[in-house]
Design goal:
This protein is an alpha/beta fold and 468 residues long. It contains 13 helices and 21 strands. It has helices at 32-43, 58-63, 65-84, 98-122, 168-171, 175-178, 195-206, 226-238, 328-343, 372-378, 392-397, 426-438, 443-448; strands at 23-28, 48-52, 126-129, 132-136, 139-142, 145-154, 158-160, 187-191, 210-214, 242-244, 249-254, 259-263, 268-269, 273-276, 280-282, 315-317, 357-359, 365-369, 382-389, 403-410, 416-422. The N and C termini lie far apart (60 Å).
Length: 468
């Protein structure tokens, strides 16, 4: 039996009337975080229901990172085919069927949706299909039927956000629709410069679309390391993407032939499609948070404490709806920690220190830890080690693109504060770097490692001279 005294939260909910509820736990949202929480809680013996108004799997599996990565894989073959000539390959009659790619992607997503349904079922939880709305701190309504629970976990994720620009919401697609286009646009304008904008710019460009990337900043990827931002901007231009920086879309109109996009300097673009990739917001619309007096911040994110508990003691929230770190593995960790804490007698909070991330642009970007700007604010003095080089593969292919790697080190302790990379396989390499950073590795630890030669990754253990 679980020792309730070992759990800092469980005692708040222990009561003699628990069995009066339909469930011990209702999870609203069958995405990665919600399903993980429901499965683990059910494994501890809790009576669990998972509510989903769309397709089980959530943003990541159905309309986010998984289908997008499949399109990235498909797009990458264009570069491979282009590079192949330098290695003696003669590829004649090369062509691509967009419709076949989308059909294959859809088949895989349906398979994964089935897996998520099975995961819920095999855990012994009930899957209730329909949109859930809070009716109080212990009650959720779905399709006119009310269900009660001792605790409720909100895991509804986020949704695309479209700026208030005349005609933009009416005529633009978002990342949701971009994954399901029946026809590849010959020319697309993408508004934004975050990771979603860059990833789709690379996808459409590789398949042969003309891509205009419009954004108001000087460089893409606000919040990333400045050297990384500068390097990826050059790489995108070298790949043929037209960067229109320092500009905003003023108006979008639709004609029988094309979209008419007017920028704030009067420039007019006439693409087949316009994509708004200007960020995401917590998906709280219609959730009924007011019925349980759940507090949100200015962006609509549900406020939670370190245990993912909201202002309503019986209600918790995990994932993008809390706007902490909006990554699928983080949502999964939060959901698992919630279930361990409340139902497993193993109280633990998620650590948000040194969380690695990647942008599947072309080329890839990956990082863990602090940017140089953050490190210089937090530490009196830092050392920066970096390497720019033309990958061996590019010497024969003729591609001028360079890989960029960067280590940021605390001068006094020699601890690695941040690792950044732009180049092929950056995400795969960065996962190992993240382990080192999480363990508190020092520059001397990197120096002591013998590199794998020839590889790009060996550059991280052969940097010897800091940047002046």
């Amino acid at each position: 039996m679980v020792d309730k005294d070992a759990n800092p939260l469980k005692s708040q909910f222990e009561g003699q009337f628990a069995k009066a509820y339909d469930y011990d736990l209702i999870v609203i949202g069958a995405g990665s975080g919600g399903v993980r929480a429901g499965r683990i809680a059910a494994g501890y013996g809790a009576r669990v229901a998972v509510i989903e108004g769309d397709r089980p799997g959530g943003t990541c599996v159905i309309r986010g990172c998984v289908p997008k990565k499949l399109l990235v894989y498909g797009a990458s073959f264009a570069g491979e085919a282009e590079d192949a000539a330098g290695f003696g390959w003669q590829i004649d009659g090369l062509s691509h069927s967009w419709s076949e790619l989308i059909a294959a992607k859809d088949k895989e997503i349906s398979r994964l949706e089935g897996i998520y349904r099975t995961l819920v079922k095999n855990a012994g939880a009930d899957l209730i299909e329909g949109w859930g709305r809070l009716k109080g701190p212990h009650e959720v309504e779905v399709g006119g039927i009310s269900y009660t629970a001792e605790r409720i976990l909100i895991a509804v994720g986020g949704r695309p956000s479209t700026p208030d620009v005349p005609g933009l919401a009416e005529h633009a697609i978002t990342s949701n629709e971009a994954l399901d286009l029946k026809k590849r646009p010959a020319h697309i304008v993408i508004y934004g410069s975050g990771y979603i904008a860059l990833e789709f710019a690379g996808i459409f460009n590789a398949f042969g679309s003309k891509v205009d990337l419009v954004y108001r900043a000087d460089l893409p990827l606000r919040g990333f390391d400045m050297d990384v931002r500068q390097h990826i901007a050059e790489a995108l231009k070298d790949r043929g993407i037209n960067l229109i920086s320092g500009r905003m879309i003023a108006e979008v109109k639709k004609t029988a032939e094309a979209c008419v996009v007017t920028l704030d300097d009067g420039t007019v673009l006439t693409p087949d499609e316009v994509m708004a990739a200007t960020g995401r917001v917590p998906n709280i619309e219609g959730l009924g948070l007011e019925a349980a007096a759940i507090e949100t911040d200015a962006r609509g994110a549900i406020k939670v404490d370190e245990w993912s508990q909201t202002s309503a003691p019986s209600i918790f929230a995990v994932g993008d709806v809390t706007d902490r770190i909006n990554l699928t593995p983080v949502a999964i960790s939060e959901g698992h920690a919630f279930a361990d804490t409340i139902y497993g007698g193993m109280p633990r909070a998620v650590s948000y220190d040194a969380v690695p991330s990647a942008v599947f642009s072309q080329p890839d970007i990956a990082s863990v830890g602090l940017t140089q700007e953050q490190a210089e604010q937090a530490h009196s003095h830092v050392h920066v080690f970096e390497s720019r080089f033309r990958a061996m593969k590019n010497t024969l292919s003729g591609r001028p693109e360079k890989t960029y790697m960067k280590l940021i080190v605390a001068a006094n302790t020699q601890r690695i504060l941040g690792v950044h990379m732009v180049g092929p396989d950056a995400a795969e390499i960065m996962q190992g770097m993240a382990i080192a950073v999480k363990m508190g590795a020092k520059k001397s630890d990197f120096d002591a490692v013998i590199g794998i030669h020839p590889s790009a990754a060996e550059e991280f253990v052969t940097m010897r001279t800091p940047r002046s």
